[in-house]
Design goal:
The complex is a heterotrimer of chains A (474), B (361) and C (346). By secondary structure, chain A is α+β, with helices and mostly antiparallel strands. Chain A has helices at residues 6-12, 43-56, 62-65, 77-85, 132-142, 174-185, 195-202, 219-227, 262-291, 299-309, 316-336, 339-360, 365-378, 384-422, and strands at residues 19-25, 31-37, 71-73, 88-93, 98-103, 148-155, 161-168, 214-216, 231-235, 241-244, 424-425, 428-429. Chain A has 3 domains: 6-103, no CATH class; 132-246, no CATH class; 260-425, no CATH class. A 5-stranded antiparallel sheet of chain A has the order 1-2-4-5-3, sandwiched between helices. Chain A has a 5-stranded antiparallel sheet with strand order 6-7-9-10-8, sandwiched between helices. A two-stranded antiparallel sheet of chain A has the order 11-12. Chain B has 2 domains: 27-217, no CATH class; 229-361, Nutrient germinant receptor protein C, domain 3 (GMP Synthetase, Chain A, domain 3). The chains are: A alpha+beta (474), B alpha/beta (361), C mainly alpha (346). Chains A and C meet through α14 of A and α4, α5 and α10 of C.
């Protein structure tokens, strides 16, 4: 605990070009020193609401002359520096020899924009931005409750990132909050630039390729999650919030499900599971059939297969392997390129390489079609992280199928589901309404039942308030 | 540490997979571009107890075809021979048709079918066909690049099987076996004649156990189709009456008396008159009724004659014997059934429900 | 057990044997009743302590020692039978030992998740198994079916009554007795009998369903000649996209096979750790070792004592007897132990 002195501060602020130290004298002779970083604070507000009133004031101290702003008494140097770096103006009153901090952070931020990662046609369009306060505001507007608690934590020895834990007190299972708090306070690392870094340190199984925290930049998703008894972790300087605990099935749910008619949504949701399954097993299945199980193909399809494969130089496995790798290179390339170039890349990739590979006799038409289907069906899964990780799964299945055929694929499926079964998110089982079995939750699992039917919050989350409706028959 | 072991295990197992599998794991190579999945075998009787087995390669793809045939004493000897004669390995996993020569069928099919049944790759949905004439000659006339005659024949069977249409008899291996094993019933198979470059449907072969004993054609075959499991028959041509009935759906009720002395069959035939030599015959309702009565009598006579043919041969392709099974009585033996069946009195009642002709002039 | 389900229709060759399924279902209900008595006692939730109270320390060791061969045998039988099926239908040229090794590796992975996770896994397995049943529905719609294949319904045939099939049916209901060993994780309640009854009814319905489908499809004369009627039926199925559905069907059975293997391996581990020094907590190395022990045992049997024909029939008989005995005796044993305990304490 070092006492604050002007010299010590000056020493700390040496070589900081944006540091400003100014002296002012009020009309009744009070000498004040203001210290701030001009990049961090709102200069206009400093002039308007602090400097001008102070200089014109006839009061005997700063506290009395600045009644409109919140002032914090500072006791030591560390505290002072902390405030300074958060965007405060430090004021030294020479008469009373006191130090004060006035928060005047620069509110430079993006405006509220539409979510680009989770786009929906209808429904709320706003999304989180990098500014934490604004994100909290977006959620609080949706849930105007005093029970909506926000607890602050600070993580990262270098970044000092503010993390806010949000939950509805009295509704959420308190166990979740305890675990999350314990995990948050035990984080020990230096740099946190995104919520995914936080998630990496909070996950129970960080080796798994399945995300155990849902990242979203949609305030409506967060509000919904809070409402059914989950908690939300907001991280400063990133538009992505974390939702936990989640299950595998949450990765396949989109906010649009609750906007569509329930029958439509119930049709779309199984489609997503199916397309995920297709995207990881379709090409392996092709390899299995062409290498081991020619008897499984109906004659008409066998004809197509033989015709397209008859003059290829590579075995099905290597053919599929190369096509998948190429596809992935193209996907990755189009992500890294500017938007306009990536469109061209799509055209080149899709038409030129696909067509040319077939014409040159490197790949069969059937495989190109299947690769296309599996790539497209991959995009149907709303969660981006799952989309990415499914590639690894695909390769695992590819190897299994090329050696063991269809039983190999099933072997892989058993392994995958067993792995999912062993995963936990915030110590809660990852396959929750299926295993362990909660039949009441199935109304919003593979189908999206009508909202009227969802009278209770998911049992798997064990919320303290079970019913979502207030008037119910006894 | 735990994770480490887990990861090592996974790694080890995948290494095992990759290293070991290449040579040891699966000695059989089923790579689709390196094999020739044949669609049919055709088996003919040859001299001194041998058989001739033939097939067409390569199936399905657009290449010049070849007929492979070998004279062998065992079927799989033929398969091995084919492999030695042809650059691709022939695989039986996609075999769809087993064509058996009439002469061979008359000697009994058991041995052939046992061979087919024991092969783990061969599906139960294998159509069995009895052929007449020189099938190899027929094949020799379909060797063009674009000519997939084996595939077309398979499609024909599949087409008629799908909606249980009674245009031709379609029997697969499983159905044949079920009838063969059943205590009191006998199987039937379609008969085709290979003549030049044509493959013609002749009728249905009746079997006594596994041996072909009779063949029915034309009119009898049509009646058989009607009686056999309520089929749909597109055309029922009755040249003697100068009438064609179309879109026939028959519903048959067979009833045995408890002492097995008589069988009564009631057939409801629904359909329409498709063709008639002169419209004058159905000018008014009386004439229409008279005609349908005439057709009814005609059908009844033919059903009786078909059934008495079966009685004479002591065979039961229509599974009438199955009706003897009752919930609370012991099942009947083949001998008892044969004794009763050959002397059974048969009453047939045909009821024709014809839709009146419209739009005709 | 699953393997029985696959071969059961070939034991139920006569239609009246369908009644045997129902009768054996009722008999099994009796065993379950005894079992539910166990679950109603407080001992069931206490795990090791509960057993210690009932049988004493040496008693437990003796039980573990007798249970171990049963478990090992069960593991070997299941995995070898499954490997044999795989060999016959899917990869005829692959060595049977490979068909044993691969599932075992995965089963080891499954077992590493521990008992709690494995017990939760049952829902997934159940869903897959139920899914398999939907594949048999088409057999009720096959054209050549007739109700006459299901007659006669009561045993008046000329054949002697098949006691052995009866045994097979009974042993195919066995399995719930292993719930005793895992009751600690099950969190049993008073309603246990209800759940067990539901499970039993489901098994009866399943077996009836499969057997009726097989009888309809094959008829009672053709059926006995087929070794795995269930799978041969799967082979007859065709879908527009894939034929030879049996390959998928057999692979899908892997879910239940691997599940039960993993469960038994965990029990083997538990039993062997009971025999040794009772350590607290479980070690992964121990689990892997016991898994490999089970695999070695299986491979041994498969390599030298599993010739098709006589030996295979012998193993099946042995399994039938051991399955029925454990199913009948272990609930009885525990029931008696509880009664004795109640008498001595009161």
């Amino acid at each position: 605990m070092t006492a604050i002195s002007l010299e010590a501060l000056k020493q700390r602020l040496a070589l900081m070009e944006d540091a400003e130290i100014i002296d002012r004298e009020t009309t009744n002779g009070l000498r004040l020193t203001f210290i701030y970083l001009e990049t961090l604070i709102d200069q206009e507000r400093l002039n308007e609401s602090i400097l001008e009133p102070v200089v014109r004031s006839f009061q005997s101290s700063v506290e009395k002359s600045l009644t409109t702003v919140k002032m914090n008494r500072l006791s030591n140097l560390e505290q002072a520096l902390q405030y300074l770096m958060m965007g405060s103006v430090l004021v030294h009153d020479s008469s009373s020899a006191r130090w004060h901090a006035i928060m005047l952070p620069n509110s430079l931020t993006r405006s509220i924009e539409t979510s680009e990662t989770e786009t929906i046609m209808f429904g709320p369009k706003d999304s989180f931005s990098e500014q934490l306060e604004q994100n909290i505001l977006l959620i609080r507007r949706r849930l105007p409750l005093t029970a909506l608690k926000t607890e602050r934590f600070s993580v990262g020895s270098l970044t000092q990132t503010t993390v806010v834990l949000m939950y509805i007190d009295g509704l959420i299972n308190p166990e979740f909050v305890t675990i999350a708090k314990k995990k948050l306070s035990s984080i020990d690392f230096d740099i946190f630039l995104d919520s995914s870094h936080i998630a990496a340190f909070m996950e129970d199984h960080y080796h798994s390729i399945f995300p155990q925290y849902l990242q979203t930049d949609r305030p409506d998703s967060c509000a919904y999650a809070l409402g059914i008894g989950k908690l939300v972790i907001l991280v400063n300087n990133t538009p992505f919030a974390l939702i936990a605990p989640i299950t595998l099935f949450h990765l396949f749910q989109s906010p649009e499900d609750y906007i569509n008619r329930w029958l439509v949504a119930s049709f779309l949701r199984p489609l997503r599971y199916l397309s995920f399954l297709l995207s990881i097993t379709l090409i392996p299945l092709y390899v299995a059939l062409t290498t081991h199980h020619y008897q499984m193909l109906p004659l008409q399809i066998l004809y197509v297969f033989i015709e397209s494969r008859s003059k290829l130089p590579l075995s099905p496995f290597w053919e599929a392997f190369f096509i998948l790798i190429t596809l992935e290179i193209m996907k990755e390339a189009s992500l890294r390129m500017p938007t306009k170039t990536s469109q061209n890349l799509g055209v080149i990739g899709g038409i030129v390489i696909g067509q040319a590979a077939v014409e040159a006799g490197f790949a069969s038409k059937v495989l190109i079609v299947l690769a296309g289907i599996s790539a497209i069906s991959n995009f149907l899964v709303p969660n981006y992280l799952v989309t990415k990780s499914s590639l690894l799964l695909q390769f695992m299945f590819l190897i299994l199928s090329s050696y063991l055929g269809v039983p190999g694929i099933l072997l892989g499926l058993v392994g995958m589901i067993a792995h999912l079964n062993g995963l936990t998110s915030l110590k809660q089982p990852y396959l929750a309404p299926v295993s362990p079995f909660y039949w009441r939750d199935w109304v919003d699992l593979f189908v999206r039942g009508p909202l009227h039917a969802m009278r209770i919050r998911p049992e798997a989350l064990r919320p303290l308030i079970k019913y979502r409706i207030s008037r119910r028959r006894k | 540490m735990k994770r480490f072991i887990q990861a090592t295990l996974v790694l080890l197992s995948s290494c095992l997979l990759i290293l070991e599998s290449g040579c040891v794991l699966l000695p059989e190579n089923n790579m689709i571009e390196e094999i020739t999945p044949i669609i049919f075998w055709s088996v003919q009787e040859a001299e001194d107890g041998k058989i001739t087995i033939s097939t067409l390669v390569p199936p399905l793809i657009k290449e010049k075809k070849r007929v492979l045939n070998l004279k062998v004493s065992l079927i799989n000897e033929g398969n091995k021979g084919f492999n030695l004669n042809y650059h691709n390995e022939l695989k039986a996993g996609q075999i769809r048709l087993l064509l058996v020569d009439e002469a061979y069928a008359k000697r009994g099919l058991t041995r052939l079918i046992n061979t087919v049944l024991t092969d783990p790759n061969i599906s139960q949905r294998l159509y069995l066909v009895v052929t007449k004439g020189d099938f190899n000659e027929f094949l020799a006339k379909h060797l063009d690049e674009t000519d997939n005659i084996d595939y077309y024949i398979y499609r024909m069977f599949k087409h008629y099987e799908k909606k249980k249409q009674g245009e031709i008899t379609v029997v697969n291996l499983h159905q044949f076996m079920k009838m063969l094993y059943s205590q009191v019933s006998d199987p039937q198979l379609p008969v085709f004649r290979a003549a030049g470059d044509q493959f013609l449907y002749e009728g249905t072969a009746f079997f006594d156990q596994d041996t072909m004993v009779a063949e029915i054609r034309g009119k009898d075959d049509q009646i058989n189709q009607l009686l056999y499991r309520d089929r749909f028959v597109r055309y029922l041509v009755l040249p003697e009456l100068s009438v064609t009935l179309g879109h026939i759906r028959a519903h048959t009720r067979k009833k045995l008396t408890p002492d097995l002395s008589s069988l009564s069959i009631e057939i409801d035939v629904k359909g329409r008159i498709n063709e008639l030599d002169s419209l004058a015959r159905i000018e008014d309702n009386y004439q229409f009724a008279a005609l349908s009565q005439k057709i009814e009598r005609y059908l009844e006579e033919n059903v009786i004659s078909l059934l008495s043919q079966m009685q004479k041969l002591q065979i039961d392709p229509l599974q009438i014997g199955a009706l003897t099974a009752k919930p609370f009585s012991r099942p009947i033996t083949r001998d008892t059934w044969d004794r009763h069946w050959s002397t059974m009195k048969i009453n047939v009642k045909v009821r024709l429900h014809l839709e009146p002709l419209t739009k005709v002039k | 057990m699953l393997y029985y389900m696959i071969i059961m229709p070939s034991a139920i060759v006569q239609p009246y044997m369908l009644l045997a399924i129902v009768a054996m279902g009722i008999a099994s209900q009796f065993c379950l009743y005894m079992l539910s008595k166990w679950f109603a006692t407080p001992y069931s939730t206490q795990g090791y302590k509960g057993f210690e109270e009932l049988f004493g320390k040496t008693g437990i060791k003796i039980l573990a020692l007798t249970g171990l061969p049963f478990l090992l045998f069960k593991i070997s039988f299941i995995s070898i039978s499954y490997a044999a099926i795989m060999q016959q239908f899917v990869f005829p040229t692959m060595d049977r030992e490979w068909h044993i090794v691969f599932p075992f590796i995965l089963c080891c992975y499954l077992a590493l998740f521990g008992m709690e996770n494995m017990i939760r896994f049952v829902t997934v397995v159940f869903i897959v198994t139920i899914g398999i049943f939907f594949m048999y529905i088409p057999f009720f719609l096959v054209q050549s079916n007739s109700i006459h294949d299901l007659y006669p319904l009561i045993p008046i045939g000329p054949e002697p009554f098949a006691w052995k099939s009866l045994l097979l049916v009974f042993s195919s209901f066995s399995g719930p007795e292993f719930l005793i060993a895992i009751s600690y994780w099950l969190n049993p309640q008073q309603k246990m009998l209800k759940y067990l009854t539901i499970a039993n009814t489901i098994s009866v319905v399943e077996y009836l369903f499969i057997s009726i489908a097989a009888l309809l499809f094959y008829g009672s004369k053709y059926l006995p000649t087929i070794k795995y009627p269930n799978l041969e039926m799967g082979r007859y199925l065709q879908s527009p996209l894939l034929e030879r559905v049996d390959i998928i069907l057999i692979s899908a059975y892997m879910f239940s096979i691997l599940y039960s293997l993993a469960l038994f391996v965990l029990m083997v581990y538990g039993a062997s750790s009971l025999l040794g020094k009772t350590k607290t907590g479980t070690s992964r190395v121990g689990l892997v070792v016991s898994c490999f022990m089970a695999m070695a045992c299986t491979l041994l049997i498969s390599k030298w004592f599993w010739e098709p024909g006589i030996e295979q029939a012998f193993w099946l008989d042995l399994q039938m007897w051991s399955g029925s005995t454990t199913y009948l005796l272990s609930p009885l044993l525990i029931w008696i132990a509880i009664k004795r305990k109640a008498r001595t304490t009161s």
